Amino acid sequence: MPGGIDYSKWDKIDYGSDDEDSSMNEEVPAVTRLDESSSVTFSSNGVSIAPSPTIQKEKEPSSTPPVPNDSSISKNVKKRKICTKNGSSYVDPKSGNEILWSQDRNEVNISIIYDCNTIASKDIRVKFHGALSYQDRFCAVGTENIIDGVEGSKGKLIVTAKGCTEPLLQGYTGYPVYLPQDEEEIDWEIDVTNSNMKMIRITLLKAVPMQGLTVWWSRPLIHFPEIDVVSGIEGRTSSNSNKDKHDEWKQSWEEAHRMFKEKIKNKEKQSI
């Protein structure tokens, strides 16, 4: 049987460590901590460290919506006041959208507040049926633009958006509207009050029986609640004299309308 392993060569091994002794003689390395982005250059003269140009990190989107400040709130309040001057606000029961409407002597403005996070501005369409031409803007007496058989209707407004099953607003005007000069559609635009609020602003030009006459609308669409066109209009009072003038003007309008229809009927009989 061959001899066993000779372990004697390990008898004189020194199990101690000379790290502590050697470390006393060696120079302790210098450690430089880089707290910011820096560039390190190695050369014959040694190592040089220089801070890198500051790189601004993109902020991660916050999961919570920004809290509106006082200035944005006051801006919204001021905007709503302008959009309801001589008019009112109304939540449409079909679409659930809030509608603001205002008017002056010449036009009515309808503002539809919509969800700009789900509806793109490019997908919105506004149509108006039954508008008078620009040349007939002072000849509104006797117009028989009854739309879809709805009594008292003078025009139909339809506001739609791609992807929405229901119109954003749909209804009939109880007053005649005329088109802008050299235009075939009514005017409308997207009004951006702030990043969280967008409105569809529609302008309806008031057609009247004669030049110089002002007609104050009691509502923009016939399914809206009516306002008081005497006390609800800026600059007008609710005195009995003004109310009597309004009633007198209304009776004169109805009488002129009746006479116009009689005149048309007589012409038709004579032509037959």
Structure, described:
The chain has a domain at 72-256: Sandwich (Immunoglobulin-like). Strands 3, 4, 5, 9, 10 and 11 form a six-stranded antiparallel sheet that branches. Helix content is 19%, strand content 25%. The protein has 272 residues and is α+β, with helices and mostly antiparallel strands. The chain has helices at residues 19-25, 70-83, 240-271, and strands at 38-43, 46-51, 88-91, 98-103, 107-114, 124-129, 155-161, 169-173, 177-178, 187-194, 197-206. The longest helix has 32 residues, at 240-271. The N and C termini lie far apart (145 Å). InterPro entries: HSP20-like_chaperone. This is CS domain-containing protein. It comes from Chaetoceros tenuissimus.
Topology readout:
Layout: H1 19-25, E1 38-43, E2 46-51, H2 70-83, E3 88-91, E4 98-103, E5 107-114, E6 124-129, E7 155-161, E8 169-173, E9 177-178, E10 187-194, E11 197-206, H3 240-271
Antiparallel strand pairs: 1-2, 3-4, 4-5, 5-11, 6-7, 7-8, 9-11, 10-11
InterPro entries: HSP20-like_chaperone (IPR008978)
Biased composition (Low complexity): 37-48
Region (Disordered): 1-78
Gist?
This protein is of the alpha+beta class. It has helices at 19-25, 70-83, 240-271, and strands at 38-43, 46-51, 88-91, 98-103, 107-114, 124-129, 155-161, 169-173, 177-178, 187-194, 197-206. The protein has a domain at 72-256: Sandwich (Immunoglobulin-like), CATH 2.60.40.790.
